[in-house]
Amino acid sequence: MPPKAHAHVTQPDKVALLKRLSRVEGQVRGIAVMVQDDRYCVDILTQITAVRSALGSVAIELLRNHAEGCVANAIAQGKGQPAIDELITVVERLSR
Amino acid sequence: MPPKAHAHVTQPDKVALLKRLSRVEGQVRGIAVMVQDDRYCVDILTQITAVRSALGSVAIELLRNHAEGCVANAIAQGKGQPAIDELITVVERLSR
Amino acid sequence: MPPKAHAHVTQPDKVALLKRLSRVEGQVRGIAVMVQDDRYCVDILTQITAVRSALGSVAIELLRNHAEGCVANAIAQGKGQPAIDELITVVERLSR
Amino acid sequence: MPPKAHAHVTQPDKVALLKRLSRVEGQVRGIAVMVQDDRYCVDILTQITAVRSALGSVAIELLRNHAEGCVANAIAQGKGQPAIDELITVVERLSR
Q: Were C21 and a residue from A60, D32, D70, D72 both cysteine, which residue would form a disulfide, CB within 3.0 to 4.6 Å?
C-alpha cells in the first residue's frame, strides 16, 4: 500500500465501520483457531463464506460513502469523468 | 459456530494455512487502520478486494483438502452420496 | 419485466452492445448443443464460466454508461441521492 | 471449443437442463430487445443479474452431476486424484 496523493476522507460512519472490521478480524482469528483445532473442513469453509460476505458488506458501505461523497463532489465540480472511471474500475474488481 | 459431531480433520498443510490466515488477519487490521487514518475510499476498497481474494484462495485450498480427504474416503467406503451433496452445497455458497 | 415509468435511455454504444449480446445468445445456444451432444461436463462448465464472464463485462459497460449518463445528470440537477442509492443497489446485486 | 478426447457423458437430467438453457437463451434475447428499445439501464442490469444467476444454477447442477458421476467413478476406480484436481480447478473458476 504505497501512500497516495489523495485527500483524506473521513468515513461518515467511521465508528460503526471500525466496529465491523474489528469483528471481521475476530472472525478471521476464529477461522485460524478452527484450523488449529482440526475442525471439520466444511465448518471452516462456512465461516470463510461468512467473513467474505461481511467484507462484501463493508465494501458496499464504503462504495456508497465514496459515491455520495467524493464522486458526487467531483461531478458537481465538473470533474466527474475521472471519478466515475475510477468508481467503475473498483466495481469491476468487486464484482469479479 | 456450534460444535458439530464431525470427526476432527488435520489439514495436510496446516502450518501454511495458519500462516496465510495470520496474514489475512493482519490485512484486515490494516484496513481498520486505513479507515482510522481517513485514507482514500478507493485505496481501502482495493485492500478489501485483496483480502476477499486471499480468503477465496484459502477456501479453495480447504476445499481441495476436503475433496481429496473426506470426500474421497467417503466415496471409497460407499458413502459418497451425502459427502458429495455436502461438497456441492459448500461450492454453491462459495460461488455466489 | 413489467414496464417501468423510466425515461428511455439510448446506450451510446448500442450497436456494439447488441453485437455482444447476440454473441452471448449464440454461446448459450452452443452450451445447449454441448448438453444435447453429451459433451464432457467440465467442458460445458468452462463454457458457462465464459458466458457468465461475458455477461459480467456487458453489465460493467451498462453500469459505466449509467453512471456517466443518468447518475451524473441527476447529480448535476441536485437529485443525486436517489440515483446513487439505486446505483449502489445494482452494484450490490452484481457483486454477489 | 475444440473437441476433446473425453468420453461422452449423458446428463441424468438432460431434458430439464435443455429446457433451462433454452429459457436462458430467451432471457439473453430479451436483454438485447431491452437495449434495442432503449430501456432504462438499471432494468437491463437487473435482467443481466437474473441470467447470471440462472447460469450459476445450471453450473451447480452440472457440477453435481459431474461429482456424482465422473468423479465418484474415478475415485472408485482408484483414479480419483486427477478427477479431483480437475473438479477443484472448475470450482475455482466458478467461484471467481
A: D32
pTM for this prediction: 0.88
**CB contact (8 A) between residue C45 and residue D62:** yes
Within a domain: residue D8?
A: no
DSSP output for B18-77: HHHHHHHHHHHHHHHHHHHTT--HHHHHHHHHHHHHHHHHHHHHHHHHHIIIIIHHHHHT
Spatial distance between the Cα atoms of A19 and A9, rounded to a whole number of angstroms: 18
Q: CATH no. for residue A31? A: 1.20.58.1000
Neighbours of chain B (3+ CB pairs under 8 A): A, D
Chain centre distance of CA A9? 15
Residue at D61 is within a domain: yes
CA distances from B15 to A26, A32, A35, A36, D33 (A): 20, 10, 9, 9, 54
Is D7 inside any structural domain?
A: no
What percent of chain D is predicted at pLDDT more than 90?
A: 74
Q: Find out whether C9 and D38 touch, Cβ atoms under 8 Å.
A: yes
Mutate to test the interface with B, among A22, A36, A38, A52 (most CBs of B within 10 A): A52
| B58, B20 Cβ separation under 8 angstroms | yes
Q: Do D67 and B76 touch (CB under 8 A)?
A: no
Distance CA(D68)–CA(D64), nearest Å, equals 6
Domain count, chain C: 1
Q: Is residue D34 part of a domain?
A: yes
Instruction: Give me the amino acid identity at A11.
Output: Q
> Chunked in runs of 10, what are the mean pLDDT values of chain C (96 residues)?
64 97 98 97 96 96 94 88 91 85
D12/chain C closest Cα distance in angstroms: 10
Closest by CA to B44, choosing from A64, A3, A59, is A59
Tell me which residue range forms the domain holding C41: 14-94
Nearest to D67 among B56, B76, B87 (CB): B87
> Which residue's C-alpha cell is 474415478?
D74
Q: Distance (Å, rounded) from C-alpha D42 to C-alpha D46?
A: 6
